[in-house]
Amino acid sequence: MSLLLSLFQPDSRQQLGLLEKKKDYRIRAKNYNEKKDTLKKLRKQALEKNPDEFYFHMINSEMRDGVHKEKVKKEVMTNKTYANSRLEVVEKSISSLWELIKNKFTI
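User: That's the sequence. What structure does it adopt?
Assistant: Structure tokens below.
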């Protein structure tokens, strides 16, 4: 194996490792150019973005661990408040019914 490596790389350059094959270079170059094109496209989109543009999702979401997530709405408190208000209405109606019953049977 070392005989093959010495054929590809001179002994004075052995510390640099194996020589890169053309197929490996093509794969690496293709990957590099795809990333470069993607970055170029994203920069162009950022430059063309309208700063006055607004979506409600912008205020209804937040970043958690680098990922956009929906904000947790306070439905629990809203439901609790609604339940308390309904409870008050029902208690008032029950007390008024008790008053009617007392007035009717205390003749």
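The radius of gyration is 37 Å.
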